[in-house]
Amino acid sequence: MRFADRTNEMKASEIRELLKLAEDKKIISFAGGLPSSDSFPIKKIDRMCTKILKDYDTAPLQYGITEGITELRVTLAKRMKKFRIKCKKENLIVTNGSQAVLDLVSKILINPKDIVAVEVPTYLGGICSFRNYQSRFLTMKIDSNGMKTHELEDKLRKMGKKKREKVKLIYAIPNFHNPTGVDMSLERRKHLIEISKRYHIPILEDDPYVELRYSGKDTPSIKNLDKEGLVIYTSTFSKIFAPGFRLGWMISEEKFARKITVAKQGTDLCTNIFCQYLANEYIKSGAMDKQIQKIRKMYRKKKDKMLEAMDKHFPEGCKWTRPKGGMFIWATLPKKIDTEKMFHEAIKHRVCYVHGAAFCVDGSGHHSMRLNFSNADEDKIELGIKRLGNLIKSKI
Amino acid sequence: MRFADRTNEMKASEIRELLKLAEDKKIISFAGGLPSSDSFPIKKIDRMCTKILKDYDTAPLQYGITEGITELRVTLAKRMKKFRIKCKKENLIVTNGSQAVLDLVSKILINPKDIVAVEVPTYLGGICSFRNYQSRFLTMKIDSNGMKTHELEDKLRKMGKKKREKVKLIYAIPNFHNPTGVDMSLERRKHLIEISKRYHIPILEDDPYVELRYSGKDTPSIKNLDKEGLVIYTSTFSKIFAPGFRLGWMISEEKFARKITVAKQGTDLCTNIFCQYLANEYIKSGAMDKQIQKIRKMYRKKKDKMLEAMDKHFPEGCKWTRPKGGMFIWATLPKKIDTEKMFHEAIKHRVCYVHGAAFCVDGSGHHSMRLNFSNADEDKIELGIKRLGNLIKSKI
């Protein structure tokens, strides 16, 4: 068969293969980016299934409009006020998880060899979506204030106009960034908006962890700072409801939303209708707010446990982030340790993580690793970190 | 914003806009391609939601693998034997409806200006998916034996080798074709396989209506006749379970399935896990087979009612198909009538359909219309057809 050119540039997700290894119950896994299964409100979900079939009869089972059911879009638009994001249902599209947003935005923006500006490291699923459309990358490092926007500014300024016009998108994860857990400072967010405005490059603000803050105060979203309609905002129900329902949403200018809708018609016709009714009921009944309180408490404890254990068991020469929210800690080891090579040894020691290079499009990240605390069994966090610490010690 | 080139070629689905007009309860709609809401097994679905949460605990709520849950893939592979399609779970991927198959297959095969061979008329959603990747079209007419494969053969033979290599896919809907309801003969199916083999062009066999036969005997699927692994088969739960669950599946060679899986990772991570467990329970409990019996009876009656009413109320000079299954009748009116222009008058007469040109990529179809019988209220079919017949009579 003769494949499309883009198919040659697609790469299988590395995490996916790792997750298979991590399925062994004897292994303490800090690898996946999963919410804790313990947290899912099963009984509530069971009751809600009955309720929506009673209240809405056959509507949750039939086809629906491409943008998403009106009820949920109205409910979500209202909820977004909490984050000071003004929008109407016309700005809002419900998608198959926020992964589908990454795909659809790429689909309507990216020509082969167009450029996406990404952080190093960044979310692996984002890299996959952009690559599916043969993107190239412009990279910016991250420090404790998040994306180094001055790097972006410098690189864009030094580019010729023609090349700069190929930069179609800036991809940012400002809150509890995946994989580092770092928060982007208000100053940097403002700077990013300025850059976006100057060069007319839209920002895709990926915000899955905004509700998972364990300490400190919220920083306004980039979308909230946006006066020009240059920010496409996306978030997801995967962390605050259940990822198995595959529900995310995006907010953009109406004109942009209409283009996404046309692309979405040929992509999946419409998003799961049944689960949209569930999500609407989940928010409106107040169950979501309760659930968020519950998982915040749960994950904060796990995060604190992991940080304590790292303080205790990781040797000198290692450093790591101390996130105020989200699901991940990013650890950087002494330069002589290659975390990708060490991975199979870690599996033998019955512990695992994702190696840093998987998140870096510029070939860096070889001495780093991402540790997930949300899905780890609280009682096993210390043991897992101890195993990992011992393995690292044996290498230096 | 600077959009991708492909975005300029995307077209909003015309049916979608029509469906909005048809929402008025006073209008008898033969427009949508919807299964009858009356048919949905609501109580069964409610009970199954409870059961899967009991049997599988949190698994239906968590992330799952990209290809689909193992349980459902094994169950489906087994069920496909009924249609004499041999496959293992490795050949089978569960998707967001079969629309997502059309998208993913296009994604990995179609470069801009590549060619897809399609029937005229053909499924509108197929056209949308291919166009999203900037395809061009090679067209074949349909007669009472389905796709005119000799037309395809002639056109391919007359093409230069270089142009022929741009033909990446043949798209076929052999059973109860949408929009015409026509069945492709065994002879034509065999001929199509031969052409596919000779020129190494894969066939995408779209088979949503295979379970909706009301009379006559099944013809072997094209996939069943395929010895070379050139057929990609797709079907859906939308007509036999509930379209709101957005579940379809595809069957292909393992190597092809792996490439689809990589593309799917960046597209949507995985298909709705909860609904996959529901679908598995639905098949295994025997509820699906019962449901199929029920809707066959229901839709056969509606189809017969519609055909009777057309015999009675449509004037001379009109002709139409007499399908043995599926959901649609295709009517062709005298040449002086443009069905697209007549549409708004039909709405005034409180009846509607989809105009034929919407399904034709070659600019034909202006005197035809698609009539859906499955979603029409049985008691109103005659009245609707009478209104339409009177309108047509007033035009000739």
Descriptive tags:
homodimer, 396 residues, alpha/beta, Aspartate Aminotransferase, domain 1, Aspartate Aminotransferase, domain 2, 2 domains, eight-stranded mixed sheet, four-stranded antiparallel sheet, 14 strands, globular
Characterize the structure shown:
The structure is a homodimer of 396-residue chains. Chain A has 396 residues and is of the alpha/beta class. Chain A has 2 domains: 11-40 and 292-393, Aspartate Aminotransferase, domain 1, CATH 3.90.1150; 42-285, Aspartate Aminotransferase, domain 2 (3-Layer(aba) Sandwich), CATH 3.40.640.10. Chain A is 42% helix and 15% strand. Chain A is built from 15 helices and 14 strands. In chain A, the strands form 3 sheets. An 8-stranded mixed β-sheet of chain A has the order 2-9-8-7-6-3-4-5, with helices on both faces. In chain A, strands 10-11-14-13 form a 4-stranded antiparallel β-sheet. In chain A, strands 1-12 form a two-stranded parallel sheet. In chain A, helix 13 (287-313) runs parallel beside helix 15. The first copy, chain A, is globular and about 60 Å long. The N and C termini of chain A lie far apart (50 Å). The model of chain A has no long low-confidence stretch (mean pLDDT 96). At the A-B interface, helix 1, helix 3, helix 5, helix 6 and helix 11 of A face helix 1, helix 3, helix 5, helix 6 and helix 11 of B.
Topology readout:
Two copies of one chain form a homodimer.
Chain A lengths: L4 H5 L4 H8 L6 E2 L12 H14 L14 H10 L12 E5 H13 L5 E6 L3 H9 L3 E8 L2 E2 L1 H10 L2 H4 L2 E6 L13 H14 L3 E4 L15 H4 L5 E6 L10 E5 L2 H15 L4 H12 L2 H27 L5 E2 L7 E5 L6 H10 L2 E2 L1 E2 L12 E5 L8 H13 L3
Parallel strand pairs in A: 1-12, 3-4, 3-6, 6-7, 7-8
Antiparallel strand pairs in A: 2-9, 4-5, 8-9, 10-11, 11-14, 13-14
Helix pairs in contact in A: 3-12, 4-12, 5-6, 5-11, 7-9, 13-15
